[in-house]
Design brief:
The structure holds two protein chains of two kinds. By secondary structure, chain A is an all-beta fold. Helix content of chain A is 0%, strand content 60%. The mean pLDDT of chain A is 89. Chain B is built from eleven helices and three strands, in the order H-H-H-H-H-H-H-H-H-H-H-E-E-E. The chains are: A mainly beta, B mainly alpha.
Chain lengths: 53, 262
């Protein structure tokens, strides 16, 4: 499941509730990898800060 | 300011959909309700429908964030003409008081505020504008700035017209900054709708349809809630550039599920 952030830095996607890993990538930035548990019926809101290389 | 809690436990989108379905039922069953209580007229039905429209009309969290962020991104460009005006005013001061050390007058016209403008110090821009206006507003200064300073007669008006676009966006920026009060206003409207809905649902179950299981289900919140897609989930991710403190566009997000909870 892959998607991208828009001009506001926001990336939104609907999919089935699950436990899993979110990987965040952009050229010239450090990759971020975080685990999340998504609840049924709720969209998980996450704020992430990218560190430039 | 403390946050008001929603009385419902589902998502806000699901809440509005549940309300829509229940209000469709109420409109269909309105004659049965009115036969048991004259309070439940079509005027009442339309009043509750109006509560839903009102609650939905308040901006949701995404809309509030979007306005705030897009406004913030505009401010750096809008403050440039104000900074250029200060640099022009410095030139008129130098020429207006030839042979004098200009720094005290620069400071009187806002130099220290100008030096404070870094990144997002919008209040310094506001203060700089006020100090420039105050400086050119002194008749003796205006005379010197005009001759021998060489300040065009349109400069004072230009200070105002160049500031106006910044002021408009800055006011919008500060208005959307207080997201707690904006969020509270929406949740408060949601809760008014919820309380009213629960009130007629109780009447529907206990008085209008006490022995009609099918009809009772239409006024049982948990049953309607289950009918409104209970399976969707997902993510709303916001990425910021840690060095520049601005939203980061075009970031790739990859979700790899490990265990399906459903």
């Amino acid at each position: 499941m892959t998607w991208n952030t828009d001009e506001h830095g926001i990336g939104e996607k609907e999919f089935e509730a699950s436990k899993g890993t979110l990987t965040v990538k952009k050229v010239n930035f450090l990759d971020l990898v975080q685990e999340f548990e998504l609840e049924p019926g709720r969209k998980k809101r996450v704020n992430l800060t990218l560190t430039p290389l | 300011m403390s946050e008001i809690k929603p009385l419902y436990t589902c998502t806000q989108d699901a809440f509005y959909e549940i309300e829509r379905r229940i209000l469709v039922s109420l409109e269909e069953d309105q004659p049965d309700f009115e036969s048991k209580s004259t309070n439940y007229t079509m005027v009442y039905v339309n009043m509750v429908k109006g509560l839903r429209v009102t609650a939905m009309s308040f901006p949701n969290e995404d809309q509030r964030n979007s306005t705030h962020e897009s406004t913030r991104n505009l401010l750096p460009g809008l403050m440039e003409p104000i900074k250029l005006n200060f640099r022009a005013l410095q030139g008129y001061i130098r020429a207006g008081w030839p042979g004098e050390e200009p720094n005290p007058r620069y400071e009187e016209a806002g130099l220290l505020k100008y030096n404070l403008i870094r990144g997002s110090n919008w209040e310094a821009v506001e203060a700089l504008q006020q100090m420039m206006l105050a400086f050119v507003g002194v008749p003796a200064n205006l005379t010197k700035l005009t001759n021998p300073g060489g300040m065009p007669p349109t400069f004072v008006a230009k200070l105002g017209t160049d500031y106006s676009p910044f002021e408009t966006k800055f006011n919008l920026f500060t208005a959307t900054l207080d997201t707690t009060s904006l969020r509270n206003a929406k949740i408060e409207a949601d809760n008014i709708l919820y309380k009213e809905t629960k009130s007629f649902m109780k009447f529907g179950k206990e008085v209008v349809y006490p022995k009609n299981e099918g009809k009772k289900e239409r006024y049982t919140w948990s049953i309607v809630e289950k009918q409104v897609d209970p399976h969707f989930s997902g993510m709303h991710v916001k990425t910021m550039n840690g060095a520049l403190d601005v939203p980061e566009v075009g970031v790739t997000l990859i979700w790899k599920p490990e265990v399906n909870l459903l």
